[in-house]
Amino acid sequence: MKRKMWFYSYLSNILVICLYATQLSSGYFTAYEAQENDKNCFCELRGSINDCSCDVDTVDHFNNIKIYPRLKSLLVKNYFRFYKVNLNRKCPFWPQDSKCAIRFCQVENCEEQNIPKGLIEPTKHHHSNGEPLGAAYKYAKEAQEPACSDADDFNSILGFLDTSISDQAHKEFELWAKHDEAEEDFCIMDDNQEDAQYVDLLINPERYTGYKGDSAHRVWKSIYLENCFDTQNHSNSLPDYIAHLDLRNLCLEQRAFYRIISGLHSSINIHLCAKYLLSESKDFLDPQGIWGPNIDEFKRRFSPETTNDEGPHWLRNLYFIYLVELRALAKAAPYFKKEEYYTGIVEEDEETKMAIKDLLSVIESFPSHFDEHALFSSSREGIKFKREFKEKFRNISQIMDCVGCDKCKVWGKLQTQGLGTALKILYSEKLNQATVSGLWQKPNIEGDHIFRLTRPEIVALFNAFGRLSNSIFEMENFRKYLR
Fold first, then answer.
1. Which pLDDT value is given to residue 23?
2. Which residues in 403-438 are b (16+ Cβ under 10 Å) and which e?
3. Nearest alpha-carbon partner for 457 in 482, 426, 424
4. Partner of 411 for a Cys bridge, out of 169, 171, 206, 351, CB 3.0 to 4.6 A?
5. Does the annotation place 207 within a ligand binding site?
6. Which residues contact 168 (CB under 8 A, 6 or more apart)?
């Protein structure tokens, strides 16, 4: 009898211990509480990234351990820290009546002596990245100059031929060449315009400047409403006109467009929350501030309670755009490995090339890349969607001229251009042609090769991807704070 009583007592103790352990480990018996905790810790994202073949945990580990540290050391190199941009273009869509007067909105001037000579004084017949001039060069006047000292003798022999090309013809050839090169662009470039200037990204970091209100909302509302495909929602409320539920009736291309824009928006908001202006000095001549993470602001922008349950969906879209740009870097890796990353500082240029190759080898090892072939089939409808994508992204690049804060405009333009460059890579027929032809296996690529990116495109792409990588890294920090 005593043995039986001892056995039942032992069994009951074991059950109590098991139930207690189950509660601690959030097992099946506490599924309801676990669900509530997940809702409270809304940035504890798990599971599949919709429309992609990998999950959130895989991206978190890959980015935070392998990608982010490499990008952090790469993007301080001179080739990537100086971005040329035109901040004086007028907004083409509405009167620019709300220029930001906050001191932290201003861009700190870049002293010319600090810019590497290789960027502002490129070698003859070469771009600022050290690469030979593209298709436009062969129609330029310089290309028509005789290359040998006895050119006059040849002219006397061929004197009956008029070998000259008129100025008007030169201009037309250049326009044709530029049209050919811009045919695959998803963004409108402004780095070659007269008002364009170099901005040092290291002394003008992306962070909260105080720019907000109607002007900022009007920019994002225009990006979503005027550029998105037809949806049923026409509300003026921010959570309403970027609602997740509207996507159920959209095809893959339309859904991808929205998710890319939403992911970019989420990334920018995370940067502002991670580097929020916590305090500032009152000296206008010497503006100083202390920036750091603002947990309440992060919750306001992304928690289910303040976003109609949409915040977690917006955060998940960050992972979607990350995979899109990651795939673009992997696809163009053979091209990037051939780049010179020329600044004129020989030792650093070599270090940059080595760092790029190391980063690309890691990116190429990622097991579940975004499948760009799922979008834009060769059907008439697929071709139509691709054309609409280009039109919409070019429109977005123009909307960035309507941002009232100069520092916000720099980073808005850079990230939009970086995204446009990624899409150009993913859907470039010229890049596909170069890859199929085996161009990247040749020891030297000829000057006028099939596919080419300009230095501003390369700088924008790597920095834009760096911003997404930083956002995912900061997400882990916010998870720790919220726990």
1. 32
2. bbbbbbbbbbbbbbbbbbbbbbbbbbebbeebbeee
3. 424
4. 206
5. yes
6. none
Give the integer Cα–Cα distance in Å for 470 and 415: 13
Could you tell me which residues come within 8 angstroms of residue 30 by beta carbon, excluding any fewer than 6 positions away? Answer: 22, 23
Active site residue 405: yes
Q: How far is CA 211 from CA 68, 97, 106, 442, in A?
A: 28, 14, 11, 50
Would the annotation count 163 as a binding residue?
A: no
Q: Which residues contact 244 (CB under 8 A, 6 or more apart)?
A: 310, 313, 314
Which 3 state secondary structure label does DSSP give 293? coil
User: Does 220 carry a binding-site annotation?
Assistant: yes
DSSP 178-203: HHHHHTT-SS---TTSTT-EEEETTT
* 91 belongs to the catalytic site: no
Q: Rounded to an integer, what distance in angstroms lies between the CA atom of residue 230 and that of residue 280?
A: 44
**Longest distance between any two alpha carbons in the chain, whole Å:** 126
Give first-to-last CA distance, the chain, whole Å: 50
Q: For residue 423, which of 212, 184, 239, 253 has the smallest C-alpha distance? A: 184
Q: How many residues does the chain have?
A: 483
Reply yes or no on whether the pLDDT at 363 is more than 90: yes
Dist. CA 320–CA 239, nearest whole Å: 19
CA dist 18 and 462 (Å) reads 51
Residues 6+ apart with CB under 8 A from 446: 132
> Is 411 annotated in some ligand binding site?
no
124 token code pair: 């003859």
- Catalytic residue of the set 43, 187, 402, 408: 408
Q: Which of 100, 110, 402, 405 is catalytic?
A: 405
pTM of the model: 0.79
pLDDT score of 36 more than 70: no
Cα 461 from Cα 418, distance rounded (Å): 4
How buried is 161 (Cβ within 10 angstroms: 0-12 exposed, 13-18 middle, 19+ buried)?
exposed
Determine whether the annotation assigns residue 352 to a binding site. Answer: no
Q: What is d(CA 395, CA 257) in angstroms, rounded to the nearest whole number?
A: 13
